[in-house]
Each structure stands twice: as structure tokens, then as C-alpha cells.
# Entry
Amino acid sequence: MILYDFGCEQGHVFEASLESMFDNDPACLRCGGATRRRPSRVNIGGAADAGPSREQMPQSWRATHGGDPDTVRHWHRLAEKREKLEERHPELAGDRRPVLAHEGIFQGAPLRAGDDIGAAVHDRLASGARPHSHVVASDDRNTPATRKESTL
# Structure
């Protein structure tokens, strides 16, 4: 059965179900006049919401207002909902492998467990990423780790 919206020339509007889309339109329920199929009303009020992604959820104690129980409970509920959604739709889960490096050349493209480290470093350097530069102050040259002992 297919549910259609119908309207007659007198302005009466009603819904009726038909066995097939090829069935004749029924007569108007109020006046008995001829009817035509009308476009059904589109309901756009109840849009689906995936909720916050894992990246948008608090990642630290400070982000939960110092471990506030209500805040932690709220985010725990949202995380459980997100987990159930990702079980049904794995494409929403993203890459869940642990991040091994996210600074320096890997800022913006983190190195994850299972990645080929050599290839990842080569790709990041080839893309123009610059490694950290560690500047050594002039007084640090004479520290025990770098001082050369002179033997006379």
C-alpha cells in the first residue's frame, strides 16, 4: 500500500492509500469530485545529529571542569552514543589507531601506530614540513655532556 496526498477542485485535501502507483485516483471524500495527487509534505524538522566527534570531546581533566561529576556524566553519555553510532556506521569512526607523534613535522598529519615511519618522515619532509630546530645557547657548550676534557 502506498500513501498519497490528494486534493479536489473544491480545495478539500486528504490522504488515501492505493495498492499501486498505477491505480486511479479516488473520488473526494467530502464532495465526491475528481481528485489529483498532490506532492506530499516534506518533514525536515527532525534532522539527524551525529553529536560531537571524538576530537571535539574533552581530552583532559581541565576540559571537564576539574572532573565535575555532572560534566563527566554528560560527556560519558555522549561518548556512549557516539560509540554506538560508530558501531552501526564505521565510516564515521575515522582512524582510531594510537597517535605516536603529533608535533614537529607531524603537526597536522600525525604519525599513527602501524604507519611506515621512514616513509612517513620522507613524505612529510617532501611536503615541505620543517623539523624542530633546537638552538643551543652559547653558555650551554661547556656543559659536562658536551665539554671535551683536555688531557695534558
Summary: The beta strands are 2-8, 13-18, 35-38, 99-101, 111-112. The two ends are 104 Å apart (CA to CA).
